[in-house]
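Consider what follows.

. . .
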Amino acid sequence: MYFFQDDIGLLVQHAQNNFWQFLILPQAEHFAPLLHALTYLELNLFGLNFYGYFFVTLTLHILNLFLLYRLLLLLKFHRHLALSLSMLFSINLTFVEPFLWFSAQGVILANIFISLVFYHFLLFVSHSQKHSLYLSCLFIICASFSYSTGVALGIIFGLIAAIFGKFIRAY
């Protein structure tokens, strides 16, 4: 395992700028301050040891699986089906790139935050927990600051949540 493609550009960008400049500078046309903050932390913890970055990516992916499982349970999926679907997601090819290309960790970060948006919005709809609506709004901002796809995914999941919200009220 090694650094390649945008990883090298991200490492060079980090070396040439202070933390605050690095945080707000777009990288490969993506404005992703949360990804840059994670990269800054990883570089300070692991230096140029790629395995540390891989471990962080693996940990984020496992967190994603857990959130998917919890989300499916909230949608009233049977726990065995929720677990099976989560395990199927674990081998999803969407996340092959971030495992080998650490500058794509923003995809996983955005997905974590979108899952949290969806989860908390469903809590708000089904249990009228006002704080969950506020958390949902906070997490959509975090998703959009993790990777540019977070904005589009947020809109898509927001529409899905609105549709499922109507079904939840019918129960």
